[in-house]
Predict the structure.
Amino acid sequence: MEKKNIDWSNLGFGYIETEKRFVSNYKNGAWDEGALVSDSTIQISECAGVLQYAQTCFEGLKAYTTEDGHIVTFRPDLNASRMKDSCERLEMPVYPEDKFVEAVTKVVAANEAFVPPYGSGATLYLRPYMFGSSPVIGVKPAEEYQFRIFATPVGPYFKGGVKPLTIRVSDFDRAAPNGTGHIKAGLNYAMSLHAIVSAHKEGYDENMYLDPGTRKKVEETGGANFIFITKDNKVVTPKSSSILPSITRRSLMVVAKEYLGLEVEEREVYLDELKDFAECGLCGTAAVISPVGKVVDHGTEICFPSGMSDMGPVTKKLYDTLTGIQMGRIEAPKGWIHVIK
Ligand SMILES: *Cc1c(COP(=O)(O)O)cnc(C)c1O
């Protein structure tokens, strides 16, 4: 297979059109067979449910080349089951989980020329999503839906080395206590755009959102979960029903416990405790872990002892172990690596 002539290690995180995408339509109460298509555009009613009332959800995962030359994805079954949860909460029809994984496999195989080589740091990002496609004017779920998966190659996250982030405690909320924070709905991102643009304007990399009920507990950022390392090397992650259950974070907790023998805790984390942690990181598919060096709470700086120039030592071990598992350098727990070819 001839790879595309792309400068893999200098790719950014943007959309590059690839050859094939998977499309399936839901009509009269059933999904069709679905197919790979070449057309990257979509034609829908001007009154489609997604355009009027934001009835849409998505997933994100990566395909990449392992050390021994296989093309794989990481735990795609968890993306399928999370999308099921998102669909149920948004009154959308579930796309069958086994067919989701099959469709991921087809899209990667059909765009093999765009899967970056091992060692480049680049990956093929996959974006499964679903939206209400039929006209809706009175507020109710659409009757017809489209499920799609496209692929786009993305560059290494830490170009030019790791730089710990500076984040601010946000006055905006991300998710209501009994709202949609726990699902991957586009609407959660629409309402976060103003908060992230204003954070960037003030010189911060990200927002730390608090629980909107009491504003005393740490939730997550706009698109990544937190992990904290205590001074005695425990791995702590916030527990809340309005946090999106990151697959990366859940995997890191297993790695911490089973591979590194560390104690792990999923519990409520108070803003007041931040000053006592040794390290902090953001977990998500894009970067695996981005270290956080500093949190600014309305002028008060909380600086983690890991500093502003590198990942903390425990964060680094977690990062190296999980990326080692993903890239086939370390044996993976059963079922984590989905081999495409
Ligand atoms: C997607 C997402 C994450 C990260 O989840 P992964 O499965 O690790 O990629 C974290 N928080 C939010 C709000 C997200 O949408």
Observations:
- The chain has a mean pLDDT of 96.
- The radius of gyration is 20 Å.
- The longest helix spans residues 76-89.
- Residues 165-325 form a domain with the D-amino Acid Aminotransferase; Chain A, domain 2 fold (CATH 3.20.10.10).
